[in-house]
Amino acid sequence: MTDKNSTAPAIAVEGLWQVFGEHAEKALRTAREAATNPEDFHAVAEDLMARGLIPAVRDANFEVKAGELFVIMGLSGSGKSTLIRCISRLIEPTAGSVRIDGEDILKANEKRLIDLRRNKLGMVFQHFGLFPHMTVTDNVAFPLKMQGAGKAERRKRAHEVLELVGLNGREDAYPRNLSGGQRQRVGIARSLAVNPDIWFLDEPFSALDPLIRRQLQDEFLNIQATLQKSIVFITHDIQEALKLADRIAIMRDGEVVQIGTPEDIVLRPVNDYVREFTRDVPKGRHARVESVMLDKTPDSMPDDPKLKVGMRLDIALERCMDLYEPVPVWDDAGNMVGAVNPAELAAALHVDDDTGGAA
Ligand SMILES: Nc1ncnc2c1ncn2[C@@H]1O[C@H](COP(=O)(O)OP(=O)(O)OP(=O)(O)O)[C@@H](O)[C@H]1O
User: Which ligand 1 atom is the nearest neighbour of the CA of 254?
Assistant: First the structure.
């Protein structure tokens, strides 16, 4: 089990490259040697492309904490699927290291990999991959069968996870008789059956219509609130990323260009590519009042309005928009923890925004 109290990351990715093309490893080595600065991965990637190779993941470095919901977001072709496939070792990365709970999985032999996939890693993909000739229960129980669990135990566990995803009553149905949303629920239940510590989901909801998609996102958040898995979740939908993520990694052309909380991404985009994604996102919904707290708390401030730690920016602004001086922010115990300037609140809500900010 992942030790939720430990500070060790669930996943640690370092200097990861995936280069497609002939003799990729050698080409990467050559390109690094030829670069004036081998750490300059832009130059290395340019060189590889000039030689006709595809650097689909370029020097990725990040950690996923235990119990964290880490979303990878980017346009089509930016390298998201390739990255998640490298981390789960569905493909062999060209260079770099991937540690899962401290274990270097690029060094794991075939037997260990099978063991990890059966017991520790769960995977869900966009196309459900259900067995058409098996009932819902048998689909969900299948990985348990692979683990060698007995029939009664398999049925009990299948029933538990089907209940978790809201599919009780459909245990004996076949996939063809289910809606897309229900099939995806079966896929989720199946990957949860073995109680994985680490869960990889590649665009799990993108084949669904918007209403069902939102419903599944809500259910997914509920499941995560209970189970606290360490999750890598891929999407190309910024709204989905902002709704689900503890932190988001934004990819562009194989490069991880920014990693941050939804608030960081919305309020502090590192470049125009990231800014463009969040242009129409209502900023106030994703940022909290402490993100604009003043470095120094003034000595005298009005008592009201009572802004609280954790309050959304748009709601905070509503309460103090007619004031021109800094106002205090309080915690739940009634202690003053700092102050914000209403003008800065308003400015944060309108970051680069010509769409009306908190609208
Ligand atoms: N097996 C492969 N051989 C050669 N090139 C590949 C291979 N797989 C992916 N690529 C290329 O790597 C790049 C990244 O692709 P990838 O599928 O990882 O992107 P993505 O962000 O997941 O896209 P999408 O959202 O459309 O699934 C693309 O240029 C793609 O064409």
Answer: 14
* Residue carrying the six token digits 């499941």: 223
58 closest CA partner among 255, 259, 257: 255
Measured from the Cβ of residue 182, the count of other Cβ atoms closer than 10 Å reads 19
One domain for residues 186 and 310: no
- What pLDDT does 7 receive? 67
Query: What sign for the dihedral angle of Cα 165, 166, 170, 174?
Result: negative
- Ligand 1 contact, 78 CB (< 6 A): yes
Domain that holds residue 165: 66-96+104-277
pTM: 0.84
pLDDT at 353 (0 to 100): 42
From the list 261, 301, 305, 287, the residue with the least C-alpha distance to 345 is 287
Burial classification of residue 210, based on how many CB atoms lie within 10 Å of its CB (0-12 exposed, 13-18 middle, 19 or more buried)? exposed
Is there a contact between 240 and 264 (Cβ–Cβ < 8 Å)?
Answer: no
Sign of CA dihedral 280, 352, 235, 225: negative
For residue 356, pLDDT over 70 is answered with: no
Assigned domain for 355 exists: no
Residue 267 and residue 343 share a domain:
no
Q: Which atom of ligand 1 is nearest to the CA of 74?
A: 21
* ipTM beyond cut 0.85: yes
Strands 121-125 and 198-202: parallel
Binding site membership of 85 for ligand 1 (Cβ less than 6 Å): no
Percent of the chain having pLDDT more than 70?
95
Q: In whole angstroms, what is the distance from residue 275 CA to residue 279 CA?
A: 6
The residue type found at 151 is K
